[in-house]
Amino acid sequence: MSLAFQYHEKKSFMHRIDPITKVVWMMCISVLVFIYESAIPQLILFAVMLLTAILLANLSFTFVIRGIWIMALFSIGFFIIQTLLVPGETVVYSIGPLVIHKESLDFATAITFRILTIFTSSLIFVATSDPRDIVISLTQKLKIPYRYAYSLFVALRFVPTLESEAKIIEAAQKIRGVGKQKGLKNKIENLKRFSLPLLMGAIRRVQVTANTMESKGYGAYADRTYIRTINFSKQGILFAGAWITLTVCLVVLRFI
Amino acid sequence: MEPIIQLKNVSYTYEDETEPVLKNLSLEIYKGEFVLIVGPSGSGKSTVCQTFNGIIPNVLEGTIEGEIKVDDKDVLNLELKDLSTSMGLVFQDPDAQLCNIYVEDEVAFAPENLKVHPDEIRNRIVDSLEKVGMLGFEHRKVFELSGGQKQKVGIASVLAMKPKILVLDNATANLDPQATKDIFDLLKVLHQDYGHTIVVVENKIDDLIHLVDRLLVMEDGSVISAGSPQHVLENSIDKLTEMGLWVPEISELCVRLKEIGFNFNQFPISVEDAVAELKGRWEVNKLVEKPSYNDESISDAITVKHLTYHYPNGTKALYDVNFSIKKGEFVAILGTNGSGKTTLVKHLMGIISPPKGSVFVNGKDIHKRDLLEMTDHIGYVFQNPEHQFVADNVFEETIYSLKVKNKVGRGHELPQEIIDEGNKALNMINLLDQKDKHPFVLSGGEKRRLSVVASLILGQDIVILDEPTTGQDYASATKLLELCHDLQSQGKTVIMITHDIRLVCKWANSAIVMNNGQMIFNGGVKELFVQDHVLKKASLIEPPISQLAKALSNVQLKQGIITIDQFIQTAERVKEAL
Amino acid sequence: MGETVKVVQSPKKKAKANRFTTVDIVLMAILAIVNGVAMTYLAMLNQLLTALGGPILTSITLGLYSISGVLAAYIIRKPGAALFTLTLAGVVQILSGNPNGLISITAAVTDGLGVELGFALFRYKRWDWLSVSVSGILAVPVWFVISSFWFGYYKWGMSILLLAFGVRCLSGIVTSGWLSKLIGDILVKTNLLKGFKIDKDRKAKEVK
Ligand SMILES: Nc1ncnc2c1ncn2[C@@H]1O[C@H](COP(=O)(O)OP(=O)(O)OP(=O)(O)O)[C@@H](O)[C@H]1O
Ligand SMILES: Nc1ncnc2c1ncn2[C@@H]1O[C@H](COP(=O)(O)OP(=O)(O)OP(=O)(O)O)[C@@H](O)[C@H]1O
Ligand SMILES: [Mg+2]
Ligand SMILES: [Mg+2]
To answer: Do both B234 and B355 map to the same domain?
Structure first.
């Protein structure tokens, strides 16, 4: 899987909403998944996420599935372990020494879908938010000094460069015979052989990049101007407001 | 006239170092001038460029003395932000100097930092991109651009600060000849039409020298000569060559011609100059043309038949390629960026597994052969030597493949033969006395040579090199080619991808030219340069000497004249014409 | 003639010694991603892990997630380097559509705080095996508690939890702490880190 950012330029309700509002929305979701430990509410939340992805974010079902399938695989293993390890009372099924309890099944389902829901909401956020807008909201709305916020651009900018470099190093070393030797010690050596050139190539650029940035006035003033601006929209405020209200109500209901 | 850049007795020592890098250096650059700085690696060219805009001493600290004035500002007593609008600096590595994701943001980056009003920035984006010919690329991602396009964006991004001075430090080193020429043409326009003052540091100056007003030569931290390019080249070309610098081929020729009694009104530095001077005094039509050496009895090292390849994403990278390479040949593979050169040699090595019946090495089909097994037959040298380094010191690096092959594990004692073999190889490249150093601390040229011998330690009889001379000065490029030549005279087959036409002409016997995945030429190097349609199609830039020979000849040449020696030889027959 | 000798080490700069310079910021950005890139390409690593096998597998490599933070701190040697690098790494992970959204950013931040605390205990003055071990280990506990609630581990029973915790601490020391020091020491020898505090400290030591 590539580390390059997964923003998909499209038009949709979620695309139009600014990143901060979406973060608020994500936080609501996190709170909600956290207060329930049984399957039904978690399944409902997950369904809501899927609908949001398809209806509000204009993402195709296949895109969502492709985005979460690794996580889904992971969850299956997780589900099994949870089912077996979490204690319970009502026996549903048993094979030999393995006993499956209703409570553990319920709990495992809940936790598994908790993970999938969080993951889908994050996928929606990522696919609908231009990284530029994220950085700009950090500085314009959250008042984080742009010198620091900008590091996110630098990081994202160099991901593809490093990835192609990593590919080349892998091939170059294979040709030298790396990988022919067996044994744990050699495997560890190989890790070093791979990581060092990658790291050195990257660090060699650091000084040049920093100098270029400085000579282009980076950090010259405490603030700067922007050719893009971020505005909270009415739609966004309504959307976030609705979610906050819903979350507060459900939390109150749950703990009364 | 007032100088726009003025350095007076500047000495500078990097922080924590003892030796000064700039020593009592003085120089002046005038408004509207186009100045070229040359000098051997490590002579302080980059250091001096960074004093112009205050990176030194504001960011890179250290001890500095003397006086630096740029655009009437006292560099040593001002902050970086007061200086950055006077000049823009473009560096060698296009990847390192672009820190934004989108082209538009990259160009807007500097003015945004300098708090220019957004409306004004919008105008500047259009302006700067238009100047460099990249209008319409605003919303493209930086990392998807080609190297040449990246450098143009780099230039646009400094133009957006509206600087009076533009400084390019080795900015074309990683580009193919066509992209390099595009950048030089752009500089010409910026200089002549927009009146920018331009300072360029460059290695390969054949296509640039005739554009510049003044040439400065640096050695060991000071400027040792300065003047018009004609003047400097005429008087100190030997010195420049001795310092290991690239000099224009035409000037090299003219110095030789002077030795055999020619006089020039004005010392030629470009093909046009030389044509003007030599027209009517030198004829190239009496050359006896020998066919290229071609012995049918020698068997093929590599044969390629009907090779076609698409990358998984659908890119058509090779289309019906057919050729064979004889044992002991020195073959250059030429073509523009993206024409399929690397893809082709990856098939020869088996990094990409070729289909059945398409690639034969020493007569055997390599279809489905294991990559590790192929390393017994072919040594493959990647473009960046560091990528291939696997050991902690130079000696271990050299013998690594031998150890793997003979299964000498950790803790085993090294057999004497392996030690001898390693020492012999290191001796050949003069690195024996540095055998305990970490490979990463060697100089660029040394790293490169080490990677060649380390790749060939198994005694493979075919070696493939992917762009081995990029960005090196003349001295270290020549050393590397001498090494390849030695290998060739030991009977090995050398296959080299390169953009360096002058080196090809001097060292290679034959050439394969790729264009859009198709092979459009396969034959002797001399024949290549008389095939104008091939040159044009593959945007190969002819070596100056060949251009000159063509211009001076009134018959259609059957073979190009591609080295200075060949050119001079035509003189044996025209001495009487002097 | 210009006889001005300027030794650039103005008092203003000295006062700012603990502020991040642009080079620091760029280095942290690079370190924040290099780890992730390496991990995605390290098929070798996976082989190694499968060889070791078992369900404790995830715990064994856990230290690797905080290595970029320890390394950044070890090179830059200023307060905040570890926290900043790890937070950034977390954000990049999210944007690449990779792990679990707010979960991973929380993990990144808690790891960062732990490492930061480790070096702070030594008042950012000690940079040796001990301080990197402490920092490596401190990346573990907070996230361990949070994650056992997130993922519902807390229902597993004490002995399993303690075992997992032990493995994670060990992993923190070795694959995060020690490994960072090893890498940092190799890098500084190759002269790539000129200008960073780690290089200055090394030179100062050599003079002694
Ligand atoms: N940041 C630095 N700290 C210490 N020494 C440095 C630094 N940068 C460069 N040097 C040293 O200063 C000297 C001059 O380097 P500089 O980069 O200016 O040379 P150059 O003429 O540009 O060489 P090249 O043609 O290889 O680019 C070299 O010996 C180099 O090792
Ligand atoms: N891994 C890949 N996946 C998809 N397409 C690729 C891949 N590598 C190269 N290509 C494409 O295949 C074509 C040939 O590329 P190749 O690298 O062989 O060119 P080249 O002649 O070596 O260029 P250069 O001078 O830039 O090294 C190009 O269009 C390139 O974009
Ligand atoms: Mg330089
Ligand atoms: Mg190539």
So the answer is: no
Q: Are residues B22 and B57 in the same domain?
A: yes
Q: Is residue C8 part of a domain?
A: no
Residues in A 53-92 with any Cβ partner in C closer than 8 A: 67, 71, 78, 81-82, 85-87
Shared-domain flag, residues B45 and B120: yes
Closest-CA residue of B relative to A172 is B388
Residues B400 and B468 in one domain: no
**Residue B178 CB-density burial (10 A; 0-12 exposed, 13-18 middle, 19+ buried):** middle
Is any atom of ligand 1 closer than 6 Å to the C-beta of B14?
A: yes
Centre of ligand 1 from the C-alpha of residue B19, in Å: 12
B143 CA to centre of ligand 2 in angstroms = 15
Contact B35, B227 (CB under 8 A): no
Rounded to whole angstroms, the maximal C-alpha distance in chain A is 72
Q: Do C34 and A118 touch (CB under 8 A)?
A: no
pLDDT in tens, B293-348: 566 678 889 999 999 999 887 888 999 999 999 999 999 999 988 889 999 999 99
Distances (CA, A) of B354 to B106, B208, B344, B347, B350: 41, 42, 10, 6, 7
C-beta atoms of C8 and B57 within 8 A: yes
Count structural domains, chain C. Answer: 1
Cβ-defined contact of A203 to C187 (cutoff 8 Å)? yes
Picking from A155-164, B561-570, C7-16, which range would have the lowest pLDDT averaged per residue? C7-16
CA distance A17 to A232: 8
Q: In this complex, which chains have at least 3 CB pairs below 8 Å with chain B?
A: A, C
Count of residues making up chain A: 256
Determine, for residues B441 and C191 on separate chains, whether the beta-carbon distance falls below 8 Å. yes
Query: Predicted ipTM?
Result: 0.87
Cα–Cα distance for residue pair B524/B108, rounded to 1 Å: 49
Q: Are A117 and A33 in contact (CB under 8 A)?
A: yes
pTM of the model: 0.88
- In B91-153, at which residue ranges do the beta strands (DSSP E only) sit? none
Which strands sit side by side in the sheet containing B300-310, from one edge to the other? B316-326, B300-310, B359-361, B364-365
Other Cβ atoms within 10 Å of C190 Cβ, number = 15
Give the CATH number of the domain where residue C29 resides: 1.10.1760
Number of structural domains (chain B) is 4
Ligand having the closest approach to the CA of B337? 2
Closest Cα to atom 12 of ligand 1: B21
Same domain flag for B497 and B571: no
Domain membership of residue B249 (yes or no) is no
Containing domain of residue B422, as a range? 386-459
Identify whether residues B465 and B509 lie together within a single domain. Answer: yes
What pLDDT, on the 0 to 100 scale, is given for residue C78? Answer: 94
Taking the centre of ligand 1 as the mean of its atom positions, its distance from the CA of residue B439, in whole angstroms, is 19
What is the rounded CA–CA span in Å between residue B203 and residue B173?
8
Atom of ligand 1 nearest to the CA of B50: 18
Is residue C9 domain-resident? Answer: no
Residue B490 token pair: 């030991």
State the Cα–Cα distance between residues B283 and B295, nearest whole angstrom: 32
CB pairs under 8 A between B and C: 45
Interface test with C, best of B12, B13, B65, B101 (most C CBs within 10 A): B65
Encode pLDDT of A160-174 as tens digits.
Answer: 999 889 988 988 888
Instruction: Answer yes or no: is the C-beta of B221 below 6 A from any ligand 1 atom.
Output: no
Any C CB within 8 A of A198 CB: yes
| Domain-wise residue ranges, chain A | 13-136+231-255, 143-215
Task: Among B425, B442, B459, identify where a domain stops.
Answer: B459
Residues A122, C37: C-beta atoms closer than 8 Å: no
Q: Could you tell me the residue range of the domain that residue C39 belongs to?
A: 20-207
Q: Are residues B206 and B67 in the same domain?
A: yes
Q: Do B387 and A226 lie within an 8 Å CB cutoff?
A: no
Q: Give the number of the atom of ligand 2 that is nearest the alpha carbon of residue B340.
A: 18
